Amino acid sequence: MKEVSIIGVDLAKQVFQLHGATSEGEAVFRKKLSRKQFLAFMQTHPGCIVAMEACATAHHWARTLSALGHVVRLIAPKFVKPYVKSQKNDMADAEAIAEAGSRPTMRFVEVKTPEQQGLGMIFRLRDLLVGQRAQMINALRGHLAEFGLVAAKGRENVDKLRAVLEPSQEWVDDLPPAVRYMAQLCFDQIGDLSRRIAELDAQIAAASRRSRFSARVQKMPGIGPITAMALEAFSPPMETFRQGRDFSAWLGLVPRQHSSGGKQRLGRTSKSGQRDIRRLLIIGAMAVISGTKVRPPAESSWLGRILARKPRMLAAIALANKMARMLWAMITKNEEFRGGPLMAN
Question: How far is the CA of 32 from the CAs of 11, 12, 36, 313, in angstroms?
Fold first, then answer.
C-alpha cells in the first residue's frame, strides 16, 4: 500500500467517512467507520495529517488525535465546499476535506482548549437564557394586551405589569382565572431566568478577575467582562494574525469587496466572521457613543469627525473596527490601553 500522507475525515455522531491520500493527492483508501472503529483505526495508523471540518465535536477529536501523534488541521466548512466535485455525500465530502487540507495556502482553525470551550459554554448558555427571558416577556406582553393591559418593551417594565395585576386592584377580579394563573407562571419563569442569568454573570465576573487577559482588555472603554470572556473563549491566539486589520476582517468588521480589473469596489460590512465578538464590540461601541451625549468628543478627534458626518450606527461599526485593531495591538505587544475614550486623532 502506498504511504498515506493525509486523511480527510467527514465527522458525524456515529458513522465517520475517511479518505486517505498520498502527498500527490492519489486516493489510497476510502473507509466508513463507526465511532469506536474510528478511534481504534487512528490509534494504530502511523502519524499523518488529519483534516476535518471545524464543526461540532471537531475540537474534541483534534485534541484526541493530536495526543496520538497526528497533525490535525481544522478547516472552516466554507473553504471545503469549493472542493466538492459533484454530488454531495459523505464520500465526496471526505475527499474534499482531504484536498482542501493539502493546499499550502489554506487557512486553518486553531484547536481550542477545554478551558476555552468551557468559557464558550458559559457564554452560549447565558445568551440562550437571555433570549428565553426576552421571549417570555414578549409573550406575556402580547397576551395581556388582549385584555387591555399594555406595557412598553423591556424587562424593566415587567414590574409595572406585576403591580397592575396585584390582587388589591379591584378590576383584577374581572379577568378570567386562567389569565391570572398563566400570568403568574410567566412572572415566575421570568424571575427564575433572571436569577440564573445573574448567577452566570457572577461566574463571568469572577473568571474575568482571575484572568490577566480579561483585566487588561477591560481597560478599553466599551469592553466589559462578557466581551472580555468572549474574546478569550472564541478568538484564536492573536499572534496568528499578521496585523490588526486581519483580526478585524476575521470578525467581519471590514467592507465586503467586489473589486475587479484593478478597480476597487467596497460594499457593506462583510459580517463573515465571529458573530459573537463582533456583536459585543458593536454594542460596546454604541455604549461609548451614547456616553458622548454627556461628554461630547472634540470636533478634531477621530470619533468627533466620524459622528459629524456619519449616522450613529455606522460610527459604531467604525469604532468597533478601531477597537478590534487596538485590541490586537494591546495583546500582541503586551501593552496597556493608553489614551482617553477612543478619541485619538
Answer: 11, 11, 12, 50
212, amino acid identity: R
Cβ contact 179:147 at 8 Å: yes
Strands of the chain, DSSP E: 6-10, 15-21, 27-34, 49-53, 71-75, 255-257, 266-269
CA pair distance 278, 254, nearest whole angstrom: 11
Strands 15-21 and 6-10: antiparallel
Query: What CA–CA distances, in Å, run from 311 to 51, 307, 315?
Result: 44, 7, 6
Single-letter code of the amino acid located at 64 = T
Beta bridge partners of 74: 52, 109
Strand 49-53 with 71-75, pairing: parallel
Q: How far is CA 45 from CA 17, 40, 49, in A?
A: 16, 9, 11
Q: How confident is the model at residue 44 (pLDDT cuts 50, 70, 90)?
A: very high
Could you read off the pLDDT of 142-174 as tens digits, one per residue? 998 888 888 888 888 888 888 877 776 666 677
Q: What are the grid coordinates assigned to 344, written together? A: 485619538
As a whole number of angstroms, the distance between CA 316 and CA 345 comes to: 16
DSSP-assigned states of every residue in 11-47: --SSEEEEEEE-TT--EEEEEEEEHHHHHHHHHHSPS
pLDDT above 60 for 342: no
What SS3 class is residue 147? Answer: coil
Residues in the chain: 345
Instruction: Give the phi and the psi of residue 241 in degrees, each rounded to 5.
Output: -100, 135
Amino acid at 157: N
Which residues make Cβ contacts (< 8 Å) with residue 212, sequence separation at least 6?
none
**How does DSSP classify residue 10?**
E
Among 101-105, 236-240, 257-261, the range scoring the smallest mean pLDDT is: 257-261
| Beta bridge mates, 31 | 18
Q: How many CB atoms lie within 10 A of CB 278?
A: 24
pTM for this prediction: 0.83
